[in-house]
Structure formats: structure tokens, C-alpha cells
């Protein structure tokens, strides 16, 4: 479990700045503030909701169950983001 937590932390620490840099470079200048604000709101909701989700599930089904559900939720969000069409200019 400790190695999984370390992996999650390292992955988040690596992907967050890369994703924000890509998002900033792919966003028109006139929408940059709105886009980055929405992205930061989503990140903050994940930071707040993730521990609540995992903690509640860990209390009910054990820590492994909590991490398993978290992995499914993250995979579902990633799949939905891949299917979301890009906004045309």
C-alpha cells in the first residue's frame, strides 16, 4: 500500500505541471484565464474529494478496496476526457 501511495504521489507530481503547461499552450489567449481556472477548480475538487472517497470506502471495504474504486474512477474520467470533442476555434 505504501508503494501504491508513493506511486500515486509521484505520478500526480509529474503529470500536473505537464498537463497544465499543455493546457495553457493549447488554449487561445482570450480564454486562458477561464480555462486555467476551470482546470484548477477540477484539480482542487479532486484533491478534496479523493481522500473523502477513498477514506469512506476504506472504512467500509478496506484500504485496497478504496484504492481500487479510486483507480476505476480515475480511469473512467480519463476515458470520458478522451471522448470529449475539442472546441473548434
TrEMBL record:
Residue ranges constituting the Major facilitator superfamily (MFS) profile domain according to the UniProt record: 1-89
Chain segments annotated as transmembrane: 50-81
InterPro entries: MFS_dom, MFS_trans_sf
Main location: membrane
Gene3D superfamilies the UniProt entry points to: MFS general substrate transporter like domains
Subcellular location: Cell membrane
Record has Lipid metabolism as a keyword: no
Record keywords: Membrane, Transmembrane, Transmembrane helix
Domain of life, source organism: Bacteria
SUPFAM superfamilies assigned to the protein according to its UniProt record, in alphabetical order: MFS general substrate transporter
Membrane-topology annotation of the record: Multi-pass membrane protein
Official protein name in the record: Major facilitator superfamily (MFS) profile domain-containing protein
Amino acid at each position: 500500500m505504501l508503494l501504491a501511495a508513493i506511486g500515486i504521489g509521484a505520478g500526480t507530481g509529474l503529470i500536473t505541471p505537464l498537463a497544465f503547461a499543455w493546457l495553457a499552450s493549447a488554449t487561445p489567449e482570450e480564454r486562458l484565464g477561464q480555462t486555467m481556472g476551470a482546470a484548477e477548480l477540477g484539480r482542487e475538487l479532486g484533491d478534496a474529494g479523493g481522500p473523502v472517497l477513498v477514506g469512506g470506502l476504506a472504512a467500509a471495504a478496506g484500504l485496497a478496496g478504496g484504492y481500487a474504486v479510486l483507480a476505476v474512477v480515475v480511469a473512467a474520467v480519463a476515458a470520458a476526457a478522451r471522448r470529449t470533442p475539442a472546441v473548434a476555434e
